[in-house]
């Protein structure tokens, strides 16, 4: 009876868009992209870009301090610093043109030591925003020219192999870091897609359960409505072929016709809007009413269940057929769920009510002892019961009890 719970996973972070990279915002919120297709920069983007710019400038200033030790001419030193300054300014373009910036930094890395920070940031951005093939070619080219740079401009006070090892290790580390960031973003997007698919499947299952419940109700209402119209036709035909009938017989037949017409209109109101499907195997069978609840409880007891029936309805025959049939189906499904999900527990079926007050049906099971067996399901039974009660004009609530059991409670109209 413990119904399956459908879990929903949020697909976005509506209150924290500012904390997401613009690349993720573009995928999570396509409507926020600019008309040209470029995503809008978030507050996080501005903060990160400004930090990257400062980092490139800091690395450039550190490299500028050792230019005097390299015995460079004044013109070469000035050119090195100018190229480094332009490279630091180009860091602001890394999101828009990551491939172009990384390609431009390959020859720059041969000419300027102060552009080292911008070169590393361009490789990091390339690894984050572009597939691995771009990283392999451009990153490999950038690392390949490193030995040539240190051959032309040896590092003062550091052996050639040591300088080369540190530079290559730093470049590989930055590229690996970028690839890690890219993989984490792809993981987030894949989880988002899985969450969307799960929500769509859950919504389809719920709609299918509602449709099946409506179809079953439509078939049942078809049988009941056909019965009432047939009864009305028989009595109207009797009046037509027996014009000499006594006043008592005419009044009795007219009363039956009036009651049948009224009941048929009531049933017709319930069936309007319900899609009727093709006939199933049980079409044409007599539909159960509230009076059949005793037989349902007896069948459950014969199956080994501990069921207690507390019926406080003065005359079950006075309950409208549609209301009684709905109450029977709810009790039937609830007993089935209790037998599957809480075997061995005691189940109490309570039904009470009166004309004008409505009918209240409660099915409650105690807390199961020991480990509860896992029975796969989709929760469509409770969805169907809720739809059935709603179409009758009532409500249905279900959930765990404070004692650890489970309860299904339906309130149905009885006018």
From TrEMBL:
<keyword id="KW-0547">Nucleotide-binding</keyword>
<keyword id="KW-0902">Two-component regulatory system</keyword>
<keyword id="KW-0812">Transmembrane</keyword>
<keyword id="KW-0597">Phosphoprotein</keyword>
<feature type="transmembrane region" description="Helical">
    <location>
        <begin position="134"/>
        <end position="152"/>
    </location>
</feature>
<feature type="transmembrane region" description="Helical">
    <location>
        <begin position="74"/>
        <end position="93"/>
    </location>
</feature>
<keyword id="KW-1133">Transmembrane helix</keyword>
<dbReference type="Pfam" id="PF02518">
    <property type="entry name" value="HATPase_c"/>
</dbReference>
<dbReference type="InterPro" id="IPR036890">
    <property type="entry name" value="HATPase_C_sf"/>
</dbReference>
<dbReference type="InterPro" id="IPR050482">
    <property type="entry name" value="Sensor_HK_TwoCompSys"/>
</dbReference>
<feature type="transmembrane region" description="Helical">
    <location>
        <begin position="99"/>
        <end position="127"/>
    </location>
</feature>
<dbReference type="InterPro" id="IPR011712">
    <property type="entry name" value="Sig_transdc_His_kin_sub3_dim/P"/>
</dbReference>
<dbReference type="InterPro" id="IPR003594">
    <property type="entry name" value="HATPase_dom"/>
</dbReference>
<keyword id="KW-0472">Membrane</keyword>
<feature type="transmembrane region" description="Helical">
    <location>
        <begin position="46"/>
        <end position="67"/>
    </location>
</feature>
<feature type="domain" description="Signal transduction histidine kinase subgroup 3 dimerisation and phosphoacceptor">
    <location>
        <begin position="214"/>
        <end position="278"/>
    </location>
</feature>
<dbReference type="Pfam" id="PF07730">
    <property type="entry name" value="HisKA_3"/>
</dbReference>
<keyword id="KW-0418">Kinase</keyword>
<protein>
    <recommendedName>
        <fullName>histidine kinase</fullName>
        <ecNumber>2.7.13.3</ecNumber>
    </recommendedName>
</protein>
<keyword id="KW-0067">ATP-binding</keyword>
<feature type="domain" description="Histidine kinase/HSP90-like ATPase">
    <location>
        <begin position="326"/>
        <end position="413"/>
    </location>
</feature>
<feature type="transmembrane region" description="Helical">
    <location>
        <begin position="158"/>
        <end position="180"/>
    </location>
</feature>
<keyword id="KW-0808">Transferase</keyword>
<dbReference type="GO" id="GO:0016301">
    <property type="term" value="F:kinase activity"/>
</dbReference>
